[in-house]
Write a structure and sequence with these properties.
The structure is a single chain. By secondary structure, the chain is of the alpha+beta class. It has 5 helices and 10 strands; from the N terminus they run H-H-H-E-E-E-E-E-H-E-E-E-E-E-H. Strands 5-4-1-10-6-7-8-3-2-9 form a 10-stranded antiparallel beta sheet. It is globular.
């Protein structure tokens, strides 16, 4: 079954809820709303010249939701990448923010990024990136990438942050039939 023409939230939620929806009753899956965030882990990292390369990336991308749902699950990293540009409101149209936590020559660093145009070749995942905060170059032996559904404001309690969070919480859960 294909995702068809879904907006960005629906496409990512549909991708992320394949496993979760099979464990829920149809009534619950159709009525509840959830905000999903994503985590990708790798055994190596290189950030340089506007490109982030995660080597030895896990075959599964973890997703989880904010309270009150507390949903946790996995989707294949290939599915995550394949659905990047799906729908009229896709990550391609509105690239997400992310925080990279990584080894940088023996020191842990955090880098705030905007992610664009992912490609997956074997277990190597490559993003074009815009560095918003943190070092522009990183090289190390491990990394975790925390991806926001539609980005995050600089201050979560700002007016813009409240408006964005309210918008994200309207993301509907999709039950695959």
């Amino acid at each position: 079954m294909g995702i068809g023409k879904l907006n960005r939230r629906e496409a990512i939620l549909a991708t992320g809820l394949v496993a979760a929806s099979s464990a829920m009753s149809p009534a619950i899956a159709a009525e509840e709303e959830a905000e999903l965030l994503f985590v990708q882990n790798s055994g190596g990292v290189k950030l340089s010249a506007g490109k982030l390369t995660l080597t030895g990336t896990s075959a599964k991308t973890l997703y989880f939701s904010d309270r009150p749902e507390r949903i946790v699950g996995r989707v294949t990293t290939k599915e995550f990448v394949d659905h990047w540009a799906t729908g009229d409101d896709s990550f391609k149209q509105d690239p997400p923010n992310a925080v990279l936590t990584a080894d940088n020559g023996g020191d842990a660093v955090e880098v705030t990024l905007v992610l664009k145009n992912p490609t997956l070749a074997g277990s190597d995942l490559v993003y074009e990136v815009e560095v918003l905060d943190g070092p522009a170059e990183v090289s190390g032996s491990w990394a975790s990438l925390f991806i926001d559904l539609i980005g995050a404001p600089l201050t979560p309690l700002s007016y813009a942050g409240v408006a964005r969070r309210t918008g994200r919480r309207t993301a509907r859960r999709i039950m695959w039939r």
